[in-house]
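Entry 14. Structure prediction run on the chain below.
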Amino acid sequence: MTHDHDLVLRPTAAQTEAALDPPPGRTGGDLVVETLAGLGATTVFGLPGQHALGVFDALRRSDLRYVGLRVENNAGFAADAYGRVTGEAAPLLLSTGPGALTSLAALQEAAASAPVLAISSQIPTRGLGGGRHGYLHELPDQAASFRGVVKSVHTVRAQSQIPSALQEAWRSALTAPHGPVWVEIPQDVLLAETALPVVTAGDAFPEELPPRPELTAVAADLLAKAARPVIVAGGGVVRADASGKLRKLAERLDAPVVTTFGGKGAFPWTHPLSLQSWLEDRHTTDFLEDADVLLVIGSGLGELSSNYHTFTPRGRVVQIEADLGKLESNHPALGIHADARLAIQALLETVPERTDPTAPERVRALLTRVSERLASQELALEQQVLASVRTALPADSPSFWDMTILAYWAWSAFDPEGSNHMHSAQGAGGLGYAFPAALGAAVADPTRPVLAVSGDGGALYSIAELATARQYDLNVTWLVVDDGGYGILREYMTDAYGPATATETTELTGPDFAALAESFGVPGVRTSPEALAADLAKALASPGPSVVVLPVRLRMFAPTHLG
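Output returned:
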């Protein structure tokens, strides 16, 4: 009797011949690029460095496309977006020490479920294991710097370990929840010639994470008997490509749906059951607290998703989450450790249809209260600017948002018009994400224009990547909202310590962003709130990179977690 796990892939005659007579001149670097190609990679991001030259030399002998950025952190953001858009693992090539460490903030953001395969060089093998050997870029324990950030760490010490280490890392990155992984390979291992055969196809299918059937049976029973069920849809729904199944479940239950900021687009914005994304509004918080069964799918109900931890559910919580560490981390629940798509499918197979004719009306009433609250705050300018962005952006185009006031508005008020269309740095909250991430998305799909939105402070983190955009002629339009400082921090500082402190610490001297873009050969234009929709639409419709600068000072809506 033969079992599936007993089956062994037999090499073809051509593979056997190639294995017995590998081409000369190959090195450990070739084993890296051959393994990546065998696993299905087509594109790699990165920045060369002294210890990593063996990999970069091997790239020219491969069919992999290399996209080089100007700063390692930005290369990490580009790989992050490539992974989010394609659902594939995105290789990120780095050098030892400073190069590796510069990527840390990007990998922390990727820990919000972007499958990034970071491959770093290391000092020569003899120097591993601690101590100080005087090598350039040396760290006593480089891997230790990444263990608290990535899903898994893989250290290679011999060429024969390269294919298996990369294969295991690839599988780890793509197993739910997606996330970054770390592989490091010593310089001498990369540079030495190899007699190992050419690496062919690899088997690194991610492990599935189905729900436990006894738990979904209990969840189905709770939902069937609920009087006021509500669904919170998080980023796990988007990453599992489960938005279609979510809609079917919501309609079967007649359950209103709110999407978290990471889950935007998981449910149609204008659907009669859509509560949209107003999680930073007390009215929405009250609505969720009133649910007798709250089904949370693909969210840990963290700070931003719980209105800054003011949300206190009164009903029963059912939480479906692929990240075991997030399960019941903030609220007691019927915790179901599972991939969102598989769990929703299990519920669709077991939950009976229920009817609640009051649900759409309750949704409309909530959204009316939210609108009235905004209307009382004289925020017409902010709403006009956000509406202009939506008007200009094609419905199928992805957008990437930095940590800036307009992005905070977009979290709550922007309709992404589709799943996996809107991305922001709300995982780790660092500056500089939007533009390099948009470049990665444009590499993944050059057929659609991509929008990046930054403030002037965040834009300075990634300004060097204008050179990357021009070099690869990427279809990215960068909207820079220039308010002469760190706008959201200005508001925080003013509220907490007064305008004098805010002025001293948050006001910035900045460049003429349009002229600076032109110096890179990238078209740049200054616009106004009135002309924004037309200028932005024109830039997005033009091939290649462009920059649109909007000099304006925007305000946030008033805090709503206080009532």
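The radius of gyration is 25 Å.
Filed with the rest of this week's runs.
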